[in-house]
Amino acid sequence: MDPLGLQSIPSRTLKVRPTTVNRPRSQVGLQRARLRSLRYSESEKVEWETVETLGPDIEDRHTLVQLARMTGNAYALPDRENWYEIEPKWNNSFPFGWEDDQDGFRGHAFVSDDQSTVILAIKGTTLLGPTSKKDKFNDNLLFSCCCARVDISWIFSTVCKCYARHWRCDESCLSDALIQDSLFYSIGVDIVNNLTTLYPSSNIWLVGHSLGGALASLLGSTFGLPSVAFESPGERLAATHLHLPLPPPFPGNTASASVPVTHVYHNADPIPQGACTGIVSPCTHAGYALETRCHLGKSIIYDTVSRFNWQVDVRRHPIKEVITTVLEEEGEWEDGREVPIALAEDDCVDCYKWEYFENDVSLE
């Protein structure tokens, strides 16, 4: 019996499709260029290579359901009641980050039975639990405009000291705060490096929900790996603060739209839309400054407000809601499609009130 009341998955196969990506020829070279830009404001050329690989078919509903279920499993251990059933060929998995209760970066790597594909599923934010403190710290550092300093009414502690009054923020200070070895992005770089060493001939994909989805996107952009992020806050500004070099754009696309990242979210969830803000919002009350809304790659947006007559509500954010109510819903969403078309968020702007500058002496 399924304790979550979820039906068993149909006997179908996760679909793949040919995917063209631009990858850095050397991770050492990319990280050197990133840190040189961050520390010295100097540019260094990154060499890219165009690679043909196999990525997930994000136009196939069953494939998205499977990836979302793996993403949900990043929050659990096998055989627990909140573990989602997935295709048998993916039953070979190993956990990471669960050894230490205080380690926030955790999840599972799912390996196909022929080892042709490895899917790294990264856990998102846990509100209550041993990882919640680190989760919140990374959330507020990555998705706030300036150190989780929202306005004068903000009563929670900030995560860095880069605020310079009057909606001004020290860019170099903010970037320095994001390169700590203990931050999830840095930990993720090490884990993906290890995976590419263990499985040099395998296709590696990254998936995650919320904070985990943003990390999957940032890491996928770093390594040139196909990534799918569910209900993720906007991570494009975080990529800028990380000084993450983006690949050369494909024809007809911007650089940010050319990374191999697909965001999947619905419009009744305020978090990926940067709308869980303001002094009366539940995110603010809980001490989260989730202000950004612009995403890398392309986004699949489900119109649940119209289809289900939902109100925008943070309670629509959990991965279970996305799996059982949105992705597993049969039928067409738009123009005869089971999955809405993925589009770039080219005109999106984050933190328009803020001015970012370099090395100001007037910091608090």
UniProtKB/TrEMBL annotation:
Broad EC category: hydrolase
Subcellular location: Endosome, Multivesicular body membrane; Prevacuolar compartment membrane
A GO-annotated cellular component: vacuolar lumen
GO biological process, one term: neutral lipid catabolic process
Membrane topology listed for this record: Single-pass type II membrane protein
Pfam families assigned to the protein according to its UniProt record, in alphabetical order: Lipase_3
InterPro entries for this protein: AB_hydrolase_fold, ATG15_Lipase, Fungal_lipase-type
Catalytic activity: a triacylglycerol + H2O = a diacylglycerol + a fatty acid + H(+)
GO molecular function: phospholipase activity; triacylglycerol lipase activity
Residues covered by the Fungal lipase-type domain: 191-221
Chief location category: membrane
Enzyme Commission no: 3.1.1.3
Annotated CDD domains: Lipase_3
Keywords on record: Autophagy, Endosome, Glycoprotein, Hydrolase, Lipid degradation, Lipid metabolism, Membrane, Signal-anchor, Transmembrane, Transmembrane helix
Family statement drawn from the similarity comment of this UniProt entry: Belongs to the AB hydrolase superfamily. Lipase family.
Subunit composition and interactions: Binds to both phosphatidylinositol (PI) and phosphatidylinositol 3,5-bisphosphate (PIP2).
PANTHER family assigned to the protein according to its UniProt record, in alphabetical order: LIPASE ATG15-RELATED (PTHR47175)
Function: Lipase which is essential for lysis of subvacuolar cytoplasm to vacuole targeted bodies and intravacuolar autophagic bodies. Involved in the lysis of intravacuolar multivesicular body (MVB) vesicles. The intravacuolar membrane disintegration by ATG15 is critical to life span extension.
Protein name as it appears in the record: triacylglycerol lipase
